[in-house]
């Protein structure tokens, strides 16, 4: 009897172990950029039909000039897309999707895929509730890169703005994102300063004063410059990107190619600058990994009545702090 009991327990343990291994194997399924692209493309098709039902037509689709986007950059843009869906749900008394956060993790296409599924599930519900019939399916793609996904997601983000009643992405929207990037970098500088040994008091002070736009030699960050255009903001944004690459180099990471002004054919809109903010936030999080910083980036807080000059000033402060890190550490 005891032998039978032990034998039964043995088989139960073997079954449990096999089930656990099967479950783990299933959970470990990985998705490719092509599968993510297919999901975002499908979400765009759903959203296009939803907007058509609302008689929102003649959409000027934005173009990403980012050829070297990585999964982290795509993930960050997905965070903003989900935030737009969240706003729509709240305004229309719908159950909102969970909000994703920006954290210093090296994200993969699989991580992005899960966010895509959240977007799809919500858009399918909205489409069905508006009387739409889903008589189309997700296409199959091969050979897609994160940069391809980034463009498709950029289009989705733009359409989600239209769904929320915005005719375009405003300087205030851009400001809300660059401000969160600035706050995130300020926090990283404080953490780095606290970690330095007491004998490095000079370096500690240099990092802390940079968060206020000050230098220990008495100089200060130049004040807000009025009359700036989205093109001016883009230029300072490129300087930020170049300094992020310099910081990448210090941490033995490959640089990410930065677009040039000529890529935009002389026409730069706030939505183009918005895309730079997403890249900057993603890069700041990626650079936390080698610096062993675990803080997450706060969510965007809506801003009002902001101009390109306001965005330019925040970009300028970010660049100021980056140069201080590069020179100090």
Give your account of this protein's structure.
The protein is mostly helical and 329 residues long. Helix content is 62%, strand content 0%. The protein has helices spanning 2-27, 33-53, 71-91, 109-129, 146-163, 171-195, 201-211, 230-250, 270-288, 308-328. Helix 3 (71-91) crosses helix 9, helix 7 packs antiparallel against helix 10 (308-328) and helix 8 (230-250) runs parallel beside helix 9. It is globular. The chain starts with a helix and ends with a helix.
Distance between the termini: 70 Å
Give a quick account of the main beta sheet: strands, pairing sense, barrel closure. Answer: none
Strand composition percent: under 5%
Mean pLDDT: 91
Rg on CA atoms, Å: 23 Å
Structural category: mainly alpha
The percent range for helix content is 55-70%
How many E strands? Answer: 0
Q: What series of H and E elements makes up the topology?
A: HHHHHHHHHH
- The tally of helices reads 10
Shape: globular
Low-confidence stretches: 1-26
């Amino acid at each position: 009897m005891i032998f039978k009991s032990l034998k039964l327990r043995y088989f139960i343990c073997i079954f449990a172990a096999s089930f656990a291994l099967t479950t783990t194997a299933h959970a470990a399924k990985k998705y490719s950029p092509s599968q993510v692209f297919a999901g975002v493309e499908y979400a765009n098709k759903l959203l296009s039909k939803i907007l058509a039902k609302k008689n929102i037509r003649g959409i000027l689709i934005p173009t990403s000039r980012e050829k070297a986007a990585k999964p982290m950059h795509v993930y960050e843009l997905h965070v903003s897309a989900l935030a737009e869906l969240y706003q729509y749900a709240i305004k229309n008394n719908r159950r909102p999707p969970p909000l994703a956060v920006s954290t210093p993790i090296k994200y993969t296409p699989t991580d992005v895929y899960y966010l895509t599924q959240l977007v799809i599930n919500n858009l399918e519900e909205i489409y069905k509730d508006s009387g739409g019939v889903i008589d189309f399916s997700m296409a199959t793609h091969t050979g897609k890169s994160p940069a391809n996904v980034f463009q498709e997601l950029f289009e989705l983000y733009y359409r989600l703005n239209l769904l929320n009643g915005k005719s375009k992405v405003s300087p205030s929207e851009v400001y809300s994102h660059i401000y969160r990037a600035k706050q995130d970098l300020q926090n990283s500088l404080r953490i780095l300063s606290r970690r330095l040994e007491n004998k490095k008091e000079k370096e500690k002070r240099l990092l802390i004063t940079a968060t206020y736009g000050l230098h220990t030699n008495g100089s200060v960050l130049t004040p807000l410059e009025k009359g700036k255009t989205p093109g001016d903001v883009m230029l300072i944004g490129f300087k930020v990107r170049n300094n992020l690459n310099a910081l990448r180099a210090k941490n033995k990471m490959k640089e990410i190619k930065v677009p040039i002004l000529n890529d935009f054919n002389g026409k730069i809109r706030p939505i183009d600058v918005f895309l730079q903010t997403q890249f900057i936030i993603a890069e700041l999080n990626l650079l936390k990994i080698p610096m062993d910083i675990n803080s997450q980036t706060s969510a965007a807080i809506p801003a009002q009545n902001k101009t390109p000059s306001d965005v330019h000033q925040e970009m300028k402060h970010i660049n100021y702090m980056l140069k201080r890190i590069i020179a100090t550490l």
